[in-house]
Amino acid sequence: MNRICKLFEIQYPIIQAGMVWASGWRLASAVSNAGGLGLIGAGSMHPEVLREHLQKCKKATQKPFGVNVPMLYPDLEKIMQIIVDEGVKIVFTSAGNPKTWTPFLKEKGITVVHVVSSVKFALKSQEAGVDAVVAEGFEAGGHNGREETTTFTLIPMVKEKIDIPLIAAGGIASGRGMLAAMVLGADGVQVGSRFVASEEASSHPNFKQQVVDAQEGDTVLTLKEITPVRLLKNKFYKDVQSLYAKSPKVEELQSLLGRGRAKKGMFEGDLEEGELEIGQIAGLIHDIKPAAKIVDDMMQEYERARGEMLNLT
Fold first, then answer.
1. Helix or strand or coil: residue 164?
2. Most CB atoms closer than 10 Å: which of 23, 45, 233, 291?
3. Residue 74: what pLDDT?
4. Predicted pLDDT at 189
5. Kind of pairing between the strands at 111-116 and 90-94
6. So what's the pLDDT on residue 147?
7. Which of 148, 114, 143 is CA-nearest to residue 128?
8. How many Å apart are CA 148 and CA 135, to the nearest integer?
C-alpha cells in the first residue's frame, strides 16, 4: 500500500495544501470526502475562528483531515491547544523549526508533517521525529524557500537522504505532474494552486479568476529580505519593484508590505493593492471547478499517464 495513504488512512496520495485565505472547512472537507487529505489553513485564522472551522469540518466529513500551521504567526500556543482540544489527528507545520512543536504534538498522538524547501531541513525534520516531510520546490505559490531549488531537483535529492515518507509540492496541478513527482521518489503530492481555483476555496472570486487568467511568467518570487513569497505581478508587485530600485532597507520593505496585504488580495479581492499568492503552475489552470472533480481528474490522468509509461517499456 502507498506509504502516504497508509499514514493518513486515505484513498489517494493527494494532499490539499493549507493555504491562507483559501483553505477553510468547505475545501478541506470536500477534498477529504473525495478521497484525498484536506487541510485547514490556520495561518489566516484567529484561534476561535480555527475552532469554528474544525467543528464544521468534523460535521462535514467522517474522513481524515488535518491542519496546516505556519509557525511564523502569533497565538501558536492557543492554536496548538485548540488542535488538541478538538481532536485533530494530523498537523502539517511550516515556516519554523520542526523541533519546536513536534514533541508536543507527538505526545498527544498526532501525526506530524513538516514542510521544507531543502535537503538540510528535511534531515532536521526527520531528526525532530516528524512522520513525513513535504518537500516544496520554488515553483510553489505563497511563502517559499530562498534557495530557489525546483521541485524536479529537490525531490530526488531529499529522497536520497531521508527514510520517512516524502510528499512533493510546488508546480503540481495535474495527474501527469503527480506521476512525475512519484517517479522522482515522492510517495504523494501536495497541491495548492489548483485547489485555489476550486468552488469550495474561500478565496475571493476575483482572485480565483485571476488565477485562471494567469499565463506562464505571470508570477514571481520576491521580498526575500522579509519572507520570500511567490505572487502574481500586479500594482502591488510593481510598487515593490519601484522600491527595490532605490536599494531599500528591510524596514522600508516591511512598511510597504504593511499588515493584511494577503487578506486584501486573496480574501477581499483587491487585485491592485493585494498580495496575490499563487504558484507558477497557474498557467496550466484554466477553470474553476469542484474540489472533488479536481481530485477525480488528477487520479484519472495519473492512471492514464502511468499506463502510457508502462506501454513504452
1. coil
2. 23
3. 81
4. 98
5. parallel
6. 85
7. 114
8. 12
For the chain, which residues make up each domain, given as ranges?
Answer: 3-202, 205-281
Q: How is the beta sheet containing 219-222 ordered, strand by strand? A: 142-143, 229-232, 219-222
Pairing label, strands 14-16, 188-191 = parallel
Q: Which three cell numbers stand for residue 177?
A: 505532474
Reference 77, options 37, 50, 55, 59; nearest CA is: 50
End-to-end CA distance of the chain: 23
CA–CA gap between residue 97 and residue 84 (Å, rounded): 20
Half-sphere exposure of 311 (CA within 13 A, CB side): 6
Evaluate the CA torsion angle 126, 129, 135, 141 in order and state its sign: negative
Closest by alpha carbon to 116, among 149, 94, 142?
94
Q: Which three cell numbers stand for residue 100?
A: 519546536
State in words which class domain 3-202 has.
Answer: alpha beta
The grid coordinates of residue 20 equal 491562507
Which amino acid, one-letter code, is at 196? V
For residues 159 and 167, give the distance between their C-alpha atoms in angstroms, rounded to a whole number.
10
What's the confidence (pLDDT) of residue 312? Answer: 81
Whole-number pLDDT of residue 144: 87
Sequence-ordered alpha helix ranges (H) in the chain: 3-8, 25-33, 47-60, 76-85, 102-107, 119-128, 151-161, 175-183, 193-196, 205-213, 235-244, 250-257, 261-262, 291-312
Where the chain has pLDDT below 50, the residues are none
User: Is pTM, for the whole model, over 0.90?
Assistant: yes
State the Cα–Cα distance between residues 29 and 286, nearest whole angstrom: 23
Per the DSSP assignment, residues forming a β-bridge with 116 are 135
Distance CA 5, CA 14 (A): 9
